[in-house]
Amino acid sequence: MAGETKITLIGNLADNPTLQYTDGGAAVVNMTVIANEKVYDSATRAWRDGDSLSMPCVAWRGYAENIAASLTKGARVIVTGTLKQRSYQPADGPRRSFTELLIDEVGPSLRFATAEVTKASGKRPALQQAAPQQAAPAATWPPRPTAPPATNPWPTPAMAG
């Protein structure tokens, strides 16, 4: 769509991806990618850590289940997607806003690792038989979405063939 802010981020996963299910049964995965900048210091002639960016990322449905089954904490990943800003009003405070990356594509970086690709069989990935997990408590930050965004390109479970 026109006007979307698309970015590509290369970094490491801060934690294992968190797979949850909405009340409607749609899978959603949340993960945080941390991109660290390396800066060359000419005075010491050595590389040092620069600024870092911590970006919350989210994906939906079968894609979410594939991500949760494939990636783990510390994995170097390449993520591309659309920046989305959301806000919410907690019962005990002022309105809060945060930015997250709605994932279009994600994969392991092969610069320092190898990967074996296995095509997911059928319409649902391997985690299809897993019991749905409880939704995140309302007090988590950033708040987890309870329904996919209106611009979500994936069909809802009722529409899936």
TrEMBL record:
<feature type="compositionally biased region" description="Low complexity">
    <location>
        <begin position="125"/>
        <end position="139"/>
    </location>
</feature>
<protein>
    <recommendedName>
        <fullName>Single-stranded DNA-binding protein</fullName>
    </recommendedName>
</protein>
<feature type="compositionally biased region" description="Pro residues">
    <location>
        <begin position="140"/>
        <end position="161"/>
    </location>
</feature>
<comment type="subunit">
    <text>Homotetramer.</text>
</comment>
<feature type="region of interest" description="Disordered">
    <location>
        <begin position="121"/>
        <end position="161"/>
    </location>
</feature>
<dbReference type="InterPro" id="IPR011344">
    <property type="entry name" value="ssDNA-bd"/>
</dbReference>
<dbReference type="GO" id="GO:0006260">
    <property type="term" value="P:DNA replication"/>
</dbReference>
<dbReference type="Pfam" id="PF00436">
    <property type="entry name" value="SSB"/>
</dbReference>
<dbReference type="GO" id="GO:0003697">
    <property type="term" value="F:single-stranded DNA binding"/>
</dbReference>
<dbReference type="InterPro" id="IPR012340">
    <property type="entry name" value="NA-bd_OB-fold"/>
</dbReference>
<dbReference type="InterPro" id="IPR000424">
    <property type="entry name" value="Primosome_PriB/ssb"/>
</dbReference>
<keyword id="KW-0238">DNA-binding</keyword>
<dbReference type="GO" id="GO:0009295">
    <property type="term" value="C:nucleoid"/>
</dbReference>
